[in-house]
Design goal:
The complex is a heterotetramer, with two copies of chain A (353 residues) and two copies of chain B (324 residues).
Chain A: H1 4-18, E1 23-26, E2 46-48, H2 53-65, E3 70-73, H3 84-96, E4 106-111, H4 126-130, E5 136-138, H5 143-155, E6 160-165, H6 186-193, E7 221-224, E8 229-233, H7 237-249, E9 255-259, E10 262-264, H8 268-278, E11 281-288, H9 293-305, E12 314-318, H10 328-334, H11 338-350
Parallel strand pairs in A: 1-2, 1-3, 3-4, 4-6, 5-6, 8-9, 8-11, 11-12
Antiparallel strand pairs in A: 5-10, 7-9
Helix pairs in contact in A: 1-5, 7-11
Chain B: H1 2-24, H2 38-47, E1 58-60, H3 66-72, H4 76-83, H5 117-128, E2 136-141, H6 148-157, E3 166-172, E4 175-176, E5 179-180, E6 200-205, H7 209-226, E7 230-235, H8 257-267, H9 273-296, H10 317-323
Parallel strand pairs in B: 1-2, 2-3, 3-7, 6-7
Antiparallel strand pairs in B: 4-5
Helix pairs in contact in B: 1-2, 1-3, 1-4, 1-8, 1-9, 2-3, 2-7, 4-9, 5-6
The chains are: A alpha/beta (353), B alpha/beta (324).
The structure holds thiamine diphosphate (2 copies) and magnesium ion (2 copies).
């Protein structure tokens, strides 16, 4: 089974070969490195950009206007905050021009904590992204979803942001989740598509025969079915919440984990269905907790399902602090961990209306 | 040719004057435009390779570019429609300010208010044209060159081995709203900023349509054939102040390229005062009619705010343009 | 009585004369214009900056680090979105350096709709600002509060954002609210401190003898007391909500309008007190409605006061769209208006638990 | 003096090697630093007018500046503390990566990871120094000059009549992580970008401490006396790759300024191999001791994340520095 970063690479390969992707670029995206997380190794249309995030986003918009199909990368979302105005332009061009110009581009960027990234390699981007109208926002939690969401993003005629959960990039998916066409044996896959260490000038990847597979933008997935509490989450916090739920099963608490996968547009029907069943809801994400996307979900839930809620809905998110510190203690205290998710689930499940 | 340029300069001036009058009569909330830049913008519009796609020229203009679009043949009344923010405004459906055109079928990217961002976006269309026939033209003001986006265009357009067919134009009217050029710049000539990047550069008199034509022609030929960037600075006038926010009244202390050119043409016996006045009267009447028509056109409906948020998956640019 | 823009000017004057303000700068902030809204006319330490928002914010940070007391302006908040990374740095410097360097700066910028500003002169900034840790955020709704909040902002040793409600800048405050020291007669005040039209090279303002007056950061104000519904709002929506409430009084609906004044830190005690009394709450602001600061307030309210709420709390905010259109119909349909506030209040007040 | 420079270069190198070893032994999560820049950074640190306030020099450095701070007299063990993210780390309390110092009592602004932002911030301390004795020094890498912030510093530092006492330094190691200089630049010399702004500029061999000393001295004297900006580009080496992310292994295909300088000193009879080895052994042992000590020091407590969010109103910079 492929890791998420291998899945992304394979999706980009299919994008180049069959979906018209013309430019995969960003800082250190091209040879020799192929991306700081190796997401763009061995591809045909990759190139290295100057160290200028504004130029990267502007270039992507311009390429899209000119009918190309660009996939741009911001090396870490921590470094996208000088481009918010340009992201707003990518999102408002179709609307502002009264439907004259659309901007079919994909922007991918690694997000989140979990790798001791300290102050500038731990940021989340979901709150910022979801308040940028005109963009579609996706964030996978498994390699297969990464593959399927990225292909959908590439085909979409609008700007789509593909948020890569840093901590999961080297992880594999749940048992049995295979990318259509990937070789069964991991070592074999690695031999085919992972660049060797050292000199790569002569290396060429051999791509497996991959099939197209699209995860529709706007559709959530039940990562773990359950009856007592609904967890609305995405990215890194999905496997974390599933693990927390599995451990709580022993205590008679059966939590349902909804992996949103698309943050905008999001799957309101799936959310309502689950909450109507469990009547209790916990939102989990790593972004800072003031003016947070989970708060939007909670606001809408209380507006529309107030009387279905048997316990106050809760948000478990990053602390409202200027950064995430390097030391273990600091990182753990700053963003949700399995234990804090369990604690919140216990509280919600045991709450007496 | 000279007479054609003059006629377009005159018409462009009358168009801006009509927009200003509309503003002053309450037929619009805000005016900003290009009176004083006609001698440069008209030749620019005439020299553009007009069409859709990478084999024609892409234009990333700003809010003083009405003359350029007029010279390209844009329907005059559409400027009035945007001024009056009618539902019929083809550029923005009543959403954007006057002077913010968008004409996809001619590669005219949407003009947006933020200063200088067009320089960061233009590198993208230019990149798409590296192996095509068309070039990308991006234009902005003098004060705006202080934004990082201007440097972004210089850096990305000049990378060795990856040079871009990009014509960067700075129309220098020596003002940013109220702030004079002097005191804000260390550069003697803004165009000098291109030299460190090995770019061809020029600073020209943008108030002289003959010089503007010749210099633009040369620069565009260079970019078109060499597929390399060129940075041009054109000295121009700002004849009605920055915008309606500063009153939009005619200023007398700047060169008027139109009267200057008319004098020249008269001296050469190519034009008479009477002919010029007659032309002016004709265009004034025509645009007055147009403004009356626009006044009768519908305003956008409240629900229309939800239109054009996302293109649907069957969206095809061509069809979209076909419609217009 | 002074208008809000006159109050701001007088506060900056007191800042220069008595609170150590050294640099008031930004685009067109200095002579001859004195700011696009005349907020900085006739002051001593104003100067015009290059047209470069990143430079303006960076300059302010650097001046603050060097012990100066800068008040920087971004001409319209619509143009601050290319500086978010720098705003984050201003907010994280004290924390990142473990308390070594603080950043005492004030950033002021006009926000909001209401003047047919079209796509790029109508943005709100409260959602973006409240998710920038390390900043204090204030937003006045009356001239006196503008005066008192700006003086507090200037004295604060941290970065403080002063959001100017564009639509209120030329408005006066409620009857009787006077700035200590302003002349009773408006014409007299205007004669003293408003620059004449035309040539100003020889003009000098005559400043009234103003007293210092500080509105503490973090303290809300009851703009209109009421018993049935609580409205949590700020800036332009305060007078709008008060007017709506006054009109509803005839229908027997008595709404309490809380003017937060400080968005961060905000006055949680005042909020709780009011909501415990009315048991119904409406949040009103103009920022886009997904990942919106009002959603934070609602999230915290349901977490802490779930069983005190006799109706689902509601948010009335800007539509989640790429921009605010120019035409009246478009602007009105995009952000809260008096009528939509009344409708929401009726619904809340009449809601049967 | 030469021997003093050599000793500091050697110690700086040993310090970086210790940090790399700590990383490789699991005593830290990430390493980034300046081995290969000693010949430039040591003279820089020695030439700084060290102190607090506008009459001394402000420093806006980046993550390769350990040598500069070491030459200024920073306590070596503090670098190790930050590497090990201990509660005793005086630069960031265990919050930031190695190489991210902050020393207010010496005007050293907090080093932060985002590339080039220090150039937009440095103009502020320089502005505050226009009528003071000190100057502002800002330093960054070659790839980072593509960011708009580099242009911001050029624009704001050179405004006629408002020039800033700012020394802009680009340490050019011909790499941005994995991306080679060639292919990303149209400039022959990055320092040429200052010329359009009327700035004094120089490109120097940053691997030669004698040239670096002389050129830095001249540039700093110019900025100090003329109160005008200077742009210096220094060619340097990157001896252990970009960071621990790329392995942090010694590369053999770049000039090692330390060995080159030692050879020179030996030739001149000012240094013997034995003496050099002995010094290296001494510093190695000292830093090994220090690293053991650091290993015993406490990690920050979870609740400490809430410290230093806001300075309280009685906050006084001086006291704060007194404490340290
Ligand atoms: C990013 C940004 N900042 C500020 C403004 C407000 N503004 C509109 S026009 C203008 C002055 C522009 O001067 P210049 O670039 O010389 O162009 P000109 O209007 O003189 O042609 C300013 C500051 C803006 N539109 N965008
Ligand atoms: C704004 C920003 N973008 C990207 C990065 C990731 N990054 C860290 S170092 C680096 C390369 C910097 O190259 P250069 O400016 O030449 O400095 P050097 O490391 O070579 O000294 C990059 C891209 C960053 N830290 N900040
Ligand atoms: Mg100008
Ligand atoms: Mg480098």
């Amino acid at each position: 089974m492929a890791t998420m970063v291998q899945a992304i690479r394979m999706a980009l390969h299919v994008g180049e070969e069959r979906l018209g992707v013309t430019d995969i670029f960003g800082e250190d995206v091209g040879p020799p490195l192929g991306g700081v997380f190796t997401a763009t190794q061995g591809l045909k249309t990759t190139w290295n950009s100057p160290l200028d995030e504004r130029g990267i986003v502007g270039m992507a918009i311009g390429l899209a206007l000119a009918g190309r199909c660009p996939v741009a990368e911001i090396q870490f979302c921590d470094y996208a905050f000088n481009t918010i105005d340009l992201l707003k332009i990518a999102g408002n061009t179709y609307w502002s021009s009264g439907g004259d110009w659309n901007v079919p581009m994909v922007l991918m960027t690694p997000v989140g904590a979990g790798i001791r990234g300290s102050i500038y390699h731990s940021h989340s981007f979901d709150a910022q992204a979801t308040r940028t109208p005109g963009w579609k926002i996706v964030m996978p939690s498994t390699p297969l979803d990464a593959y399927g969401l990225l292909l959908s993003a590439i085909k979409d005629p609008n700007p789509v942001m593909f948020l890569k959960p840093k901590a999961l990039l080297r992880q594999k998916g749940p048992k049995g989740e295979v990318i259509p066409g990937e070789p069964g044996d991991d070592k074999a896959l690695s031999k085919l598509i992972d660049a060797p260490l050292g000199d790569r000038t002569k290396w060429k990847p051999e791509w497996p025969k991959l099939e197209e597979y699209f995860v529709p933008i706007g559709k959530a997935k039940i990562a773990r079915p359950g009856r007592h509490v609904t967890v609305l989450t995405y990215g890194r916090n999905v496997p974390m919440s599933v693990a927390a739920a599995d451990e709580l099963a022993g205590e008679g608490i059966d939590a349902e984990i909804i992996d949103l996968r698309s943050l905008h547009p999001y799957d309101w029907d799936a959310i309502v269905q689950s909450v109507k069943k469990t009547n209790r809801v916990l939102c989990v994400n790593e972004d800072t907790e003031i003016t947070n996307f989970g708060e939007h979900l909670i606001r809408r839930l209380v507006e529309e399902l107030f009387y279905e809620l048997h316990a106050p809905p809760r948000l478990l998110a990053g602390k409202h602090l200027p950064g995430i510190g390097l030391a273990d203690n600091l990182e753990h205290a700053s963003v949700p961990q399995k234990e804090s998710i369990k604690a919140a689930l216990r509280e919600l499940a045991r709450h007496e209306p | 040719m000279l007479l054609r340029i003059h006629e377009l300069m005159l018409e462009a001036r009358v168009l801006e004057e009509r927009l200003i009058t509309m503003y002053k009569q309450g037929d619009g909330y805000f005016w900003i435009g290009g009176p004083g830049e006609e001698a440069f913008n008209i030749p620019l519009g005439l020299l553009v390779d007009k069409g859709q796609g990478v084999d024609h020229d892409y234009l990333h203009l700003h809010y003083r570019s009405s003359g350029t679009l007029l010279a390209m043949g844009a329907d005059r009344i559409d400027s009035l429609r945007q001024m009056k923010n009618t539902a019929t405004d083809p550029y923005s459906r009543g959403r954007n300010f006057a002077g913010h055109a968008s004409i996809r079928k001619w590669n005219v990217a949407p003009i947006s208010s933020p200063i200088e961002v067009q320089f960061s976006i233009a590198i993208g269309t230019a990149m798409a044209q590296r192996n095509a026939k068309g070039i990308t033209i991006v234009q902005g003001g003098d004060a705006g060159t202080a934004e990082g986006d201007f440097a972004t265009a210089l850096v990305w357009a000049s990378r060795k081995g990856a040079e871009l067919p990009l014509l960067m134009i700075v129309t220098n009217n020596k003002f940013g709203i109220s702030t004079p050029y002097d005191g804000q710049h260390g550069e003697v000539r803004i165009s000098d900023r291109g030299k460190a990047f090995g770019m061809k550069t020029a600073t020209i008199d943008g108030n002289d349509p003959e010089e503007a034509w010749a210099q633009l022609k040369a620069a565009m030929d260079y970019v078109r054939t060499e597929r390399k960037p060129f940075l041009m600075e054109a000295m121009v006038s700002r004849l009605y102040g920055h915008s309606s926010a500063s009153g939009a009244n005619f200023v007398t202390n700047e060169t008027d390229p139109l009267t200057r050119f008319e004098k020249k043409l008269e001296e050469r016996g190519l034009l008479t005062r009477a002919k010029a006045d007659e032309m002016r009267a004709k265009y004034t009447a025509r645009l007055l009619e147009a403004s009356k028509k626009v006044r009768e056109e519908p305003q956008p409906a409240p629900e229309s705010i939800y239109d054009y948020v996302f293109a649907d998956e069957n969206y095809v640019a061509e069809t979209k343009n076909g419609e217009k």
